[in-house]
Amino acid sequence: MGSTGSTGSTHSTSSGRPEDARDRDTEGRARNARPRDGLGRPLPYDAPGVPRQPEGVVRTPEETVAEAQRLLDEGKPFHAHEVFEDAWKSGPEEERELWRGLAQLAVGLTHAARGNLTGGARLLRRGAGAAEEWVSGSGRARPHGIDVAAVAVWARELAEDVERGGTTVDAGARAPRLRGRERGQGL
User: Fold this and answer.
1) pLDDT class of 30 with cuts at 50, 70, 90
2) HEC secondary structure over the chain
3) CA-closest candidate to residue 83, choices 70, 97, 94
4) What are phi and psi for residue 129, nearest 5 degrees?
């Protein structure tokens, strides 16, 4: 069991994953190959999932904000977090804490939508504080057009709503407007 027989056939586990398959990327690093849902939760190997964000993509700040906003609007904050994480890891050193704070906000929304209300509220507040601290230290109130003050207000209000209501949130309906009010939409 768990090996290929003399016929060369491969057996599958009950999850749909071939027994001899390894979740590794092309460089041999461990990577979970299971499909994911819109909130980044792993699904069975044979289930259809949401396309994953490629890792390590270097984008301009404008592209980062636009792609993250698109994903947030679609109710995919986990995937938006990956976009922010790419900016955090590939961007200039002096901006890393800004992108890291925004990634924490997206993860906070992810947890609030998944039902981890305490963790979601904590990450929303932590991300708001990190982004505000970066603005304070940099003197740039709207880096790359991001309305950090408005996003921080959104995060804290959502954290309070999650704790007070005690229920999960609809990630797409509660997505922040990274650049403030656009196209007639509110925060």
Assistant:
1) low
2) CCCCCCCCCCCECCCCCECCCCCECCCCCECCCCCECCCCCECCCCCCCECCCCCCCCCCHHHHHHHHHHHHHCCCHHHHHHHHHHHHHHCCHHHHHHHHHHHHHHHHHHHHHHCCHHHHHHHHHHHHHHHHHHHHHHCCCCHHHCCHHHHHHHHHHHHHHHHHHCCCCCCCCCCCCCCCCCCCCCC
3) 70
4) -65, -40
Model-level pTM? 0.79
Using CB atoms within 10 A of its CB, is residue 173 exposed (0-12), middle (13-18) or buried (19+)?
exposed
Q: What digits encode the pLDDT tens for the residues 71-123?
A: 999 999 999 999 999 999 999 999 999 999 999 999 999 999 999 999 999 99
Residue type, 128: A
CB atoms within 10 A of CB 165: 11
Rounded to 10 deg, the angle between the 77-90 and 61-73 helix axes is: 170
- Residue found by looking up tokens 């955090």 in the block: 88
Distance between CA atoms of residues 162 and 83, nearest Å: 24
End-to-end C-alpha distance for the chain, whole angstroms: 55
pLDDT higher than threshold 60 for residue 5: no
